[in-house]
């Protein structure tokens, strides 16, 4: 067993965090109990680049109990919960290479370390592991992989388009039980939680600018409005912009919004959604946060180039003073604010995402050698099974179609 973490003495506290997460992840725990019995992953080596949170810990433990050899690294330099990393090493024998506050060099060294375990299945969040494997031609032993987030799926689709993808990947992000809940309800709540932990500001009465109106942006905008914020949406897609208008939000260009916003949260998955020129238009005290996977959405280098001085005024809150005295506040170094300044998604929502991950890994192992090297959506039967497990855990019974109704839905002859 190998590991490189911050402090193994944190393991007891991390174990308590894992117990708390398990209590709120009934669907995944149901899967865990099932596969612990028959060990369908016996002898399978799995490498995962994920946020090392208590919820990820439950997923890793599930795979280990199913017989797999598991090695973990972080998908963000600031997202690791060090007590959880310690617990996974000490109590469950999982190889962890992650700690909060990694340098960029540390980050890639830890990804490199995972490949020493010769994984047959890889799990990724953002696509860095998949990219590393392909750039270094380390895919010979691979049965397939999964991808957790929108950014990673976009990268993998580009690899498929360029015909360089060498193994099948299941886009867990595209499951209904992932993006409809994790992206919208999970990030919607946890991104704001990260902002509040870093700043302790009052949202009510503030002009809040949400940059991007995908599922993540929808969730953030909805919750900011629920807290009393005046919400403005910045969006490049005419369809999404129209939807935001119909939902009752104001919609304008970034240049317009920059002049009036108090709090800005990016959720585009694209580079420089807030540029140096936009920052130059902002008023004194503006707060910048990012909810996208990579720290490219806010032009951090541009901000620092125009600042005459900067200081950390609160944990994860950096003050930048411009030449005219205006102060701009950057949260969590422009990285994922929910994980860098907070704890990430609530366990209840990660229950869905990580149930999809576990079942997708089982699917890949079962189908080894039969899937083409392309990006696949989560099979419908897995998506629906996860939803049913969650509903059952919540004590909710849904309607069942009668045989007559099933037959009616398949025919075309009956009309008015």
TrEMBL record:
Question: Per its database record, what is this protein's job?
Answer: May play a key role in the regulation of the intracellular concentration of adenosylhomocysteine.
Q: What coarse category fits the chief subcellular location reported for this protein?
A: cytoplasm
Pathway participation: Amino-acid biosynthesis; L-homocysteine biosynthesis; L-homocysteine from S-adenosyl-L-homocysteine: step 1/1
Where is the protein situated, by its record's location annotation? Cytoplasm
User: Does the entry feature the keyword RNA-binding, yes or no?
Assistant: no
- Which GO terms of the molecular function aspect are on file? adenosylhomocysteinase activity
Gene name, Swiss-Prot/TrEMBL: ahcY
**S-adenosyl-L-homocysteine hydrolase NAD binding domain ranges (all copies):** 183-344
Its EC top class is: hydrolase
User: Would you indicate the residue range of the signal peptide?
Assistant: none
Q: Which residues bind substrate?
A: 53, 125, 148, 178, 182
Which organism does this record belong to? Answer: Metallosphaera tengchongensis
Coiled-coil blocks:
none
Entry GO CC: cytosol
Tell me which EC number(s) this protein carries: 3.13.2.1
Tell me the cofactor note. Answer: Binds 1 NAD(+) per subunit.
Question: Its family?
Answer: Belongs to the adenosylhomocysteinase family.
Requisite cofactors: NAD(+)
Q: What is the top-level taxon of the source organism? A: Archaea
> Could you tell me the keywords of this UniProt record?
Cytoplasm, Hydrolase, NAD, One-carbon metabolism
Name of the protein this chain belongs to = Adenosylhomocysteinase
Please name the PROSITE patterns in this protein's record. Answer: ADOHCYASE_1, ADOHCYASE_2
Its recorded reaction(s) are: S-adenosyl-L-homocysteine + H2O = L-homocysteine + adenosine
Looking up HAMAP family in the UniProt record yields: AdoHcyase
């Amino acid at each position: 067993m190998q590991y490189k973490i911050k402090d193994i003495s944190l393991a007891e506290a991390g174990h308590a965090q894992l117990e708390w997460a398990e209590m709120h992840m009934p669907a995944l725990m149901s899967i865990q109990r099932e596969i612990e019995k028959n060990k369908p992953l016996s002898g399978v080596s799995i490498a995962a680049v994920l946020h090392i949170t208590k919820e990820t810990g439950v997923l890793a433990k599930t795979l280990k109990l199913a017989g797999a050899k598991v090695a973990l690294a972080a998908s963000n330099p600031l997202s690791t919960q060090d007590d959880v990393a310690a617990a996974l090493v000490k109590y469950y024998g999982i190889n962890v290479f992650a700690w909060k506050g990694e340098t960029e060099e540390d980050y890639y060294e830890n990804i490199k370390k995972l490949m020493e375990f010769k994984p047959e299945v890889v799990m990724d969040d953002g696509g860095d592991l998949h990219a590393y494997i392909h750039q270094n031609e380390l895919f010979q032993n691979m049965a397939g992989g999964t991808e957790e987030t929108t950014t990673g799926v976009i990268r993998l689709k580009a690899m498929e388009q360029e015909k360089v993808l060498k193994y099948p990947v299941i886009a867990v992000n595209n499951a209904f039980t992932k993006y409809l809940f994790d992206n919208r309800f999970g990030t919607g709540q946890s991104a704001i939680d990260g902002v509040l932990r870093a700043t302790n500001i009052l949202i009510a009465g503030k002009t809040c600018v949400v940059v991007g109106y995908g599922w993540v942006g929808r969730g953030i905008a909805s919750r900011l409005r629920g807290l009393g914020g005046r919400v403005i949406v910045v969006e490049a897609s005419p369809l999404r912009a129209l939807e935001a208008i119909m939902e009752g939000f104001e919609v304008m260009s970034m240049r317009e919004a920059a002049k009036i916003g108090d709090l800005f949260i990016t959720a585009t998955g694209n580079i420089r959604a807030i540029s140096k020129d936009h920052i130059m238009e902002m008023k004194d005290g503006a707060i910048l946060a990012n909810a996208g996977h990579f720290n490219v959405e806010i032009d951090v280098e541009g901000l620092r180039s125009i600042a005459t001085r900067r200081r950390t005024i609160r944990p994860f809150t950096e003050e930048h003073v411009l030449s005219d005295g205006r102060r701009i506040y950057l949260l969590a170094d422009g990285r994922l604010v929910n994980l860098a300044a907070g704890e990430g998604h609530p366990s209840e929502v990660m229950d869905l995402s990580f149930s999809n991950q576990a079942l997708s890994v089982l699917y890949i192992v079962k189908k080894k050698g039969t899937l083409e090297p392309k990006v696949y959506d989560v099979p419908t039967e897995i998506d629906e099974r996860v939803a049913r497990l969650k509903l059952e855990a919540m004590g909710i019974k849904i309607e069942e179609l009668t045989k007559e109704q099933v037959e009616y839905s398949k025919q075309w002859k009956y009309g008015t």
